[in-house]
Design brief:
The structure is a single chain. The chain is an alpha+beta fold. Helix content is 41%, strand content 16%. The protein contains six helices and four strands; from the N terminus they run H-H-E-E-E-H-E-H-H-H. A four-stranded mixed β-sheet has the order 1-2-3-4, sandwiched between helices. The C terminus is likely disordered.
Length: 155
C-alpha cells in the first residue's frame, strides 16, 4: 500500500481544504495550436494593446496574450491577478456575439477571473483611457482577496 501524499503534494488545494483552489489543467494540442495561430494573426488593436501590456510593470503584473483558459482563449490575461482583457471587433456587437460573450464572461467569473472588454476602435483611438482602465483593475483589490480579508478570525 502507498503512503498518502505529503501535505501540498498530490492533491489540489480544494481537496486539502484550501479556499482558493487552483486546479492545473492540461492544454490540448488543438487549443495550443489555435492560440499560436491567434498570436500570429492578431488584429491591429491587439498589436497596439500588446505593445503596451508587455511593458506594463504594475504590482508584479505579467500579461500574456492568447492564453488558453480551459475551453476559451483569452486575448490577454494576467494569471496572477486573475484578470482577462478582451479586445472585441464588430462580430461581438451582434445579438449572437453578445450572448456568447456573456456565457464566456460568466464562466470566467465563476473560475475567479475578472473580465475587461474593450472595442477595437477604443483601443486604437483611446489607448490611454484603455490602459488607465486596465491599470485601475490591476491595482484594485481582487474580490476574492477582499472576501478572505473579511472572514472572522478564529480564536
Amino acid at each position: 500500500s502507498r503512503n498518502p501524499p505529503l501535505e501540498g503534494e498530490g492533491r489540489s488545494r480544494s481537496e486539502r481544504g484550501g479556499v482558493n483552489s487552483v486546479v492545473k489543467r492540461t492544454v490540448g494540442d488543438f487549443k495550443r495550436r489555435s492560440a499560436r495561430r491567434l498570436r500570429l494573426d492578431g488584429t491591429g488593436a491587439e498589436a497596439i494593446l500588446w505593445h503596451h501590456l508587455r511593458r506594463l510593470q504594475i504590482k508584479g503584473s505579467h500579461f500574456r496574450r492568447q492564453v488558453v483558459i480551459a475551453p476559451y482563449i483569452a486575448d490577454f490575461a494576467c494569471l496572477s491577478m486573475r484578470l482577462v482583457v478582451e479586445v472585441d471587433g464588430s462580430q461581438h456587437g451582434t445579438d449572437d456575439g453578445r450572448s456568447r460573450d456573456a456565457v464566456r464572461t460568466r464562466w470566467l467569473n465563476s473560475e475567479g477571473y475578472r473580465v475587461l472588454r474593450f472595442w477595437n476602435n477604443d483601443v486604437m483611438s483611446r489607448t490611454r483611457s484603455v490602459l488607465d482602465a486596465i491599470d485601475d483593475a490591476v491595482c484594485a483589490t481582487h474580490p476574492a482577496r477582499l472576501w478572505q480579508a473579511t472572514l472572522p478570525l478564529e480564536g
